[in-house]
Amino acid sequence: MALPGFPNPTGVAEYDDRRRRERLRATRLGAGWTRWRRTRLMLLRLSLVPLVALGAFAEYLGADVLPEQARLARTEPAVLPIAGPSDPQASDTAVFDLVGLGVLDAGDTARALPSLTALGSVWAVRYDQTGIDTKVISDLIVKVTDAAKVSNVVLTGHSMGGVIALEIAKHLHTGSTKRVRAVLLDCTPVDLDAVRAESRDQGEEMLRWMGWVPGARESRLLRLIVETYARHDRFVGGRYLIRGAEFRSALGDVLRDKILNTDAASNGLIEAQFKAIVAGGAVDDLRALAKPAAGKPRPAIVFIRPHNPYDDPIVNVEYSHKVLIDQVGGVDGTLLVVTTHTTGHANPIERPVEYNTVIADQVVPFVRQIQQDQSAAMSVGR
C-alpha cells in the first residue's frame, strides 16, 4: 500500500469500494431514466410476476397434472371375485359390494364380511378413477353374471356406496333380465340432507375447489395439501402451534395412503362420489325398486345403522331411516332396519364381528323369507 503523498510502487490499482458502488449505479437498469424513474422500475418489476407465475403453473401442469391425467385415463371399472357361496342353494346369486366416499376398491370390505357368502358368491366393485357411470357398472355386472350363469343379484353399499348401489339396482331391475333380490344399505345418506352439516360443508367446499383450480381433479400436490390439512387436529396445538413429530407422522400417512398409493381414490372420483349424493337420485331409485318390473318382484331393502344415531358422525341415519320407511316400508313393504350397538359410520373392517353377526342372524333370514313369500305369491298368481 502506498504511503500518503507517494505513488503506488507496485503499479496495481488500489481497491476503492466507493468507485465500485458508483460504477454499479451508473450501469444498472434504469440508470439513465430521469422522469418517473421509480414508477417505471416498479412497473418493470411487476411485469416479471406473471412470467414467474406462468412458469410455475407450466411446471405444475407438466410435472403433476398431465402425468396423472394420462394414468387415470387408463383406468376402468371392474368387478373382482372374492369368495364362492357358502350355501349351495345360493349358487344362483351373486353379491356385489360397493364402498363409500374416498375409497376405490371394495375388496378389503368384502373380505371382512364372509357372512355375505350365505347369500351367494361375493364380488367387489372397483370404480373407474375418472368418475362413476352406474350404467357401465350395471352392464359389467350383467356380463359377469351371464358368464357365470347367475340370474340373481344382491347389492351391498356402504355409506355413499349405497347411493351407487341403488342406482345400479334400478338399472338392473328395470332394464335387464337379472332379478335384484336385495339391496343392503350400510349407513347410506339417501340425499344431501342426510349428510351431517360439517361433512356436507367439507364436500361442498371440495366441489368449489374442483371448479376453481385448474387440474384440481388430478393434482397430487393439491391432494397432499388438502389431506394433510384435514388431519390438522393431530398436529396443531393451541394458538396454531404445530407439533413437529405429529405433523411429520400425518404427512407420512398422507403420502403413503393417498399420494404414493395407486389404489387410492383420485380427486375426480371423490368429486363424482359426492356429486352422486348431491344429485339426490336415491329417492327416485327407491320408488322404482318399490314396485315389480318386467315380471320381477321388487327387491328387499335392508338398512344397517347404529342404534345410537350419534355414533355415526357423518350421516344422519335417523333421517335416512325415515325416508326408507316412507318409500319402501309400511305393512306391505320389503324393508328391514337392523340396528347395531358397537359400529359407527359404515365401518365393517373395524367392526367385522358385529357386522357378520347381524348379517347372518337377521339379514340373510329376512332376504330368504322375502324370496320365499314372493315365490309363493307368484305360484298362486299362476
Automatic annotation (TrEMBL):
Chain ranges of the AB hydrolase-1 domain: 137-355
GO molecular-function term, one example from the UniProt record: hydrolase activity
Keywords: Hydrolase
Domain of life: Bacteria
Pfam families in the record: Abhydrolase_6
InterPro entries in the record: AB_hydrolase_1 (IPR000073), AB_hydrolase_fold (IPR029058)
Name of the protein this chain belongs to: Alpha/beta hydrolase
Origin species: Nocardia yunnanensis
Taxonomic lineage from the root: Bacteria, Bacillati, Actinomycetota, Actinomycetes, Mycobacteriales
